[in-house]
Structure formats: structure tokens, C-alpha cells
Amino acid sequence: MTVQLEDVTVHFGNKHSGRTCALEGFDLSVAAGETVALLGPSGSGKSTALKAVAGFVRPTRGRIRLGGNDVTDLPPARRGIGVVVQQYALFPHLRVADNVAFGLRAARKPKAEVSRRVGEMLEMVGMTAYGRRFPRELSGGQQQRVAIARALAIQPSVLLLDEPLAALDAQLRADMLGELQKLRREVPDIAIVYVTHDQSEALALADRIAVMRDARLVDIAPAAELYAAPPSAFTASFLGGANLLPVSVDEGAVKVAGAVVPGLKPEDGKSLLCIRPHAIRLEPPEPANAVEDVARLVGRVVAAQWRGASSQVTCLVDGLADVVVRVDVPADRRVPELGAAVVMVLPVEACSLVPAEVG
Ligand SMILES: Nc1ncnc2c1ncn2[C@@H]1O[C@H](COP(=O)(O)OP(=O)(O)OP(=O)(O)O)[C@@H](O)[C@H]1O
């Protein structure tokens, strides 16, 4: 079932308590079988958008449609949506199987159907052996799996997930991410909206990513496209921490700090060069092989952080005040000393141009 938010605006508070605009003119359409991640910094309006779809907040303006039907005025329980939030929110006094059965019983489904469906759901999330336990007797990851089983038991055609992995440690998060990928294959027709501030979750799960900032949608595109060719400076740095370097145009050539970026064509209104930290190579300052399709920036190392599989090295570029370049140096390459002069090699196929921020 398609989920549509049309020009949705949500204001909280009043003139006494102070008004917050949590969502402003928000448009989004999620097709049946599609997963869209809402990605953005804290307070950007992601949860509010999701709550508007679930019916937990009432839009100040705009409409919510499910399968083409206007549900803006329907209470949450009548929207037929599965919702999973960050803090599991299982009923503590009910056993696992009863938690999963809750929505089916509320809908007065026959006993045999309830027990068959609960069995299927627990099997799908690998929790068959835990049906008689109480939530407090489960780990965080197990509780979250039960929460997902409960949300899916009512066979919703829309599933809303609000930071479902945020309360889990790194290993569990990775395991659950795998489970969610599996779930998508098992319920292929469901529309999923996935709220996260974690770009790796968004990249792993979403068909499309909607990047949000200050109550608005900034960019929306297929995940790979948004990563490879971000349309805005904000998305470039939020998704993958891209470097953004000011360019000048000289006789039809794009230049960074006076160095030509061969093969890159100037584009109207785009004055920043975007390149990911892992795409840059560091070399000692020696004469270059001129035939390479690369830009070469001269500078020096000002900081280095070891991160296990790689080190992040921060460099300043000669001739570019106040601009730092972050470079990921893989563990098998030598990390230059602090203060060392280096050449940052920018392969042209990894460079794109984005507009500078306005306002
Ligand atoms: N019930 C509420 N009353 C008043 N203000 C609210 C309410 N809920 C959210 N807000 C405000 O609306 C804005 C958007 O909040 P929202 O929870 O949608 O952000 P978010 O992107 O989901 O953030 P996070 O990643 O921190 O959960 C914030 O400024 C928040 O303080």
C-alpha cells in the first residue's frame, strides 16, 4: 500500500509555551514494497513525520493518504499500520506470545488463527523457543525482535520503524540489521518507513533515502545515487562525511587551490568540489606523473586518528585558508607524521560538484 504525505506541516506548542515547527511542507510517497529511510540530525523532524503517518500527531496542515485513501482524521488503531519504536515498548505483564497476539485479539480474530499467526511470526524472527517468557527475561535484541513480530502479526501493509536499533550495542545492531534485510525479502509487498540518524543503517536497508534538516526534506533519491552524487552540500557531508572544497573556474577548467581538476566540467551554481575521504590518496611531495587523471593538492598533516581498519588523517591545503581535508588511510598504508608535507591525490572519477550552501 502506498504511503503519501502531502504538504504536511506540524506545529507544536502555542504562543504561551513557544511554537516549534517540527515539520514544514513535507511531501513523501513510499510505494508498496519500497523502503524509504528518513535520515537527518537530531530534531530535524524525522519522528514527527513518522508519527503523522501513524496518527500519533495531527498535522497542522496537509494530508496523509494510505493506498490513496485520506486517513488524516482516522485514529491510529484504524490505520492498520505496524509500528516499532526505539524502546521496544512491549507489554511487560504479557508473555512474548501474548504480546505478539495482542493486535490479533484486539481485532477479534478466531483463536486458531491467532495461535497459527503467532507461531509463524515467532518463527520468522527466530523466537519460537521464547513464547512463554516475559519481556524482562529477554535481551534487548530479543525484545526488539518480538516488537517486530508483534508489529507484523496484524499483516500491516505499512510498517513504520523509528530508530529500532538505537538501543542495541554494535554487535546486536549488526545482527538485527541482517534480520531486517531478511524480513524485507519475506514480506515483499510492505511499504516501510525507517527513521534513523545512522547513515549505515539507511544505506544498508533503504531503496531511497530522504535527507531531512530543520523540519524540511532536503534531498530524496535512491541510496546509491545519493551517496555517489549528492545533490547538496548538506547531504554530501551528512551522508559519508564528504570533503567540500571551494573551486574556481579559469578558462573553462575547474581548479581547487590553483590546481586543475582534469576532466571536470564547470557547472552553473556549483562551486564546491565533493570527494569522499576514502577516495583520496596521500603521497609524499615528489614530482608527479603528469598523465594521471587526478588533481594534486599540496598541504600538510594536522591530525590523525586511528580507527582500526583505517586512520582518518586531517590535512590543510596550501592556499586554502580554513578548509580541512579528511582522508581515510587504509590500515595497510603508512600514515604520515603530524606536520609532514603531503600531496592529496584526488582521482577525477571520485569528484563531483555541488552548490554551496545558501542562507
Ligand atoms: N510533543 C512535542 N511537543 C513540542 N515539541 C516537539 C514535540 N515533539 C517534537 N518536538 C520538537 O519538534 C522538532 C522535531 O522533533 P522530532 O522528534 O521529529 O525530531 P527527530 O529528527 O526525530 O529527532 P531525534 O533524532 O532526536 O529523534 C524538535 O525541535 C522537537 O523538540
TrEMBL record:
The chain positions of domain ABC transporter read: 3-239
**Could you tell me which InterPro entries the record lists for this protein?**
AAA+_ATPase, ABC_SmlMolc_Importer, ABC_transporter-like_ATP-bd, ABC_transporter-like_CS, Mo/tungstate-bd_C_term_dom, P-loop_NTPase, Transp-assoc_OB_typ2
List, alphabetically, the SUPFAM superfamilies matched. MOP-like, P-loop containing nucleoside triphosphate hydrolases
Molecular function terms, GO-annotated = ABC-type quaternary ammonium compound transporting activity; ATP binding; ATP hydrolysis activity
Can the keyword Transport be found in this entry's annotation? yes
Might you give the EC number(s) for this enzyme? 7.6.2.9
Supply the alphabetized keyword list.
ATP-binding, Nucleotide-binding, Transport
- Identify one Pfam family in the record: TOBE_2
Under the heading PANTHER family, the entry gives: SPERMIDINE/PUTRESCINE IMPORT ATP-BINDING PROTEIN POTA, SPERMIDINE_PUTRESCINE IMPORT ATP-BINDING PROTEIN POTA
Q: What is this protein called?
A: ABC-type quaternary amine transporter
